[in-house]
Specification:
Blueprint lengths: L5 E7 L3 H9 L1 H7 L3 E5 L6 E6 L2 E12 L3 E8 L10 E10 L2 E9 L6 H23 L7 H11 L1
Antiparallel strand pairs: 1-7, 2-3, 3-4, 4-5, 5-6, 6-7
Helix pairs in contact: 1-2, 3-4
Amino acid sequence: MSKPEFVYTTYIETSLEKLWQALTDGDFTERYWFGHRVRSDWTVGSPYQFAKQGAPTIEGKVLEADPPRRLAYSWDSCSPAEKRERTSRVTFQLEPHGKIVKLTVTHDDLDEGGVTLRNISVGWPMVMASLKSLLETGRPIDIDPRSAVEREAACG
């Protein structure tokens, strides 16, 4: 039986290079990823970490790095050990289409029915919408991701 996966595709009016920078530069991620700042040297095998206000939130290892077209990393939540799920994987595929870039995010190797699957199913669309808004208008979206995830959990 295959593990669940989440796939999200969007089209952003930007360059491959600018989108790659937005995915890998902490100054960028902090602006559109609701205060989460990423840090890594983005070489295969190197660690990366997202932190919010200095507190680690997500960490893992760089699995693939082919600037500016493909990036993949493992995904481990920094939540308490009793809440940890299997290590999952995130892959970003960037494809140029004239003045726009097709961005496909695939998050796979997830636990079926797990908290990570529930959270990223709400979280990735918000993060990608905020990224798209920032690159196209200069402003990220204004939404509280925690309340959206909690609202989805209550309805689901």
